[in-house]
Amino acid sequence: MASILLAFLFIFFMLQLVVAAYNYYRKPLLPHCAETSTDKISILIPARNEAKSLPILLKSLTQQSHRNFEVIVLDDESDDGTADIASQYAASFDSFSVVKGEPLPAGWTGKNFACAQLAKKASGDYLLFLDADIVTRPHLLSSLVNVMSRDELTLLSVVPQQRLTTLGEKATVPLMNHMLLTLLPLPLISEHEMPVFAAACGQVMCFQAADYQIYQYHERVKNEVVEDLRIMRSVKELSQKGKTLMANKLVQCRMYSGYRDAVNGFGKNFLGPFYNKIALFLAYMLPMVFGPLFVWNASGPVGLLILLTIVGCTRVLTSLLANEHVWYNLLLFPCILLNLLIIGSRAIYLHVSGRGKWKGRTIGKPTVLRYPSDGKLSA
């Protein structure tokens, strides 16, 4: 039995290395493009208590090389001066505006309802939804339009380069890109029609406006916490084309402002990539956390050294692709695994209890998703 489990663990970690190597070889990066077009982009920003981060984003948007855009900020019942900051920019720039969000109705999550409201206010050829903690580089808009037009996409999602300031962030946030780049070959999102091959990042989501207005993607997933992933699956279910790329330094994000914020933030949506199924998540988490200890006990230092070499190579590849600090990710990986256990346990508790909260709102229990034989999701 021990030998079977040992073989499983080596296969488990080798498969992650293979996926990471494939992603690194294919390099799913957003290509830089300075050439502008006449297409209008509606930049839509849902903001709830974002007074600290919103000014940085809005300032970066004023420096875009692509000039045909509008910026609409929706103040989602903030109480920290977010609306005042947005109003100052609206008074200074004709292309900027701010709207007051409506009260959250039953059956919706806050972000999905805010995005749905923003889409109704937009007039662009493309709808670009940005989180308020984003910082853009000057050629982001032109680069997005280039890929959207070239590949005839309904949805292009971009995974920002993460800005990690504190030690707590460095020991938690890299989990996101590690999971993304070792569990899914990103090129398959656009190259394979099955919705199971889907991933997205809600921090940067760019839609063809015409397609969005037909399918109302945020309304379709109105009660989903991990709305980005579910939207990409919906795009593929509807036989539309989606793609997810790494930011290639064109957009950055500081997701969380410290360790506690990261644990709380990840805890609300950690099960989403596993279809909100606890058993499926445990099948990933337990080998990741306890696998190295079992290998050491079962095969001694030699087996552990081989396993650590596999893991180390995997971390190098994912770090390079995500523009993360390689040595930090290698040295802190034991802490990252410990935090996987902590965050995962918290996510399971919140899933079972339905007591998840974010920015003062109760999230509730996520929907458990099923995959029938035709590859289409159902609840």
What does this protein structure show overall?
The protein is α/β, with parallel strands linked by helices and 379 residues long. It contains 15 helices and 12 strands. The chain starts with a helix and ends in a 17-residue tail after the last strand. It has helices spanning 2-26, 54-61, 82-92, 110-121, 140-151, 167-170, 174-183, 188-191, 209-215, 217-220, 227-237, 259-267, 278-321, 326-331, 333-353; strands at residues 41-47, 69-75, 96-100, 126-130, 134-136, 155-159, 161-162, 204-208, 242-246, 251-253, 357-358, 361-362. The chain folds into 2 domains: 2-25 and 270-361, no CATH class; 28-255, Spore Coat Polysaccharide Biosynthesis Protein SpsA, Chain A (Alpha-Beta Complex), CATH 3.90.550.10. It is globular and about 65 Å long.
Key words describing this protein structure:
seven-stranded mixed sheet; Spore Coat Polysaccharide Biosynthesis Protein SpsA, Chain A; disordered C terminus; 15 helices; 379 residues; alpha/beta; three-stranded mixed sheet; 12 strands
Q: Which structural class fits the helix and strand makeup?
A: alpha/beta
From the 3D coordinates, which CATH architecture of the largest domain would you assign? Alpha-Beta Complex
Physical arrangement of strands within the biggest beta sheet? 3-2-1-4-8-6-9
Largest sheet: 7 strands, mixed
H-E order:
HEHEHEHEEHEEHHHEHHHEEHHHHEE
CATH topology of the largest domain: Spore Coat Polysaccharide Biosynthesis Protein SpsA, Chain A
Radius of gyration over alpha carbons?
A: 21 Å
CATH-defined superfamily of the largest domain = Spore Coat Polysaccharide Biosynthesis Protein SpsA, Chain A
CATH class of the largest domain: Alpha Beta
Number of individual domains: 2
Pfam families: Glycos_transf_2 (PF00535)
Main location: membrane
Keywords: Cell membrane, Glycosyltransferase, Membrane, Transferase, Transmembrane, Transmembrane helix
Organism: Sphingobacterium paludis
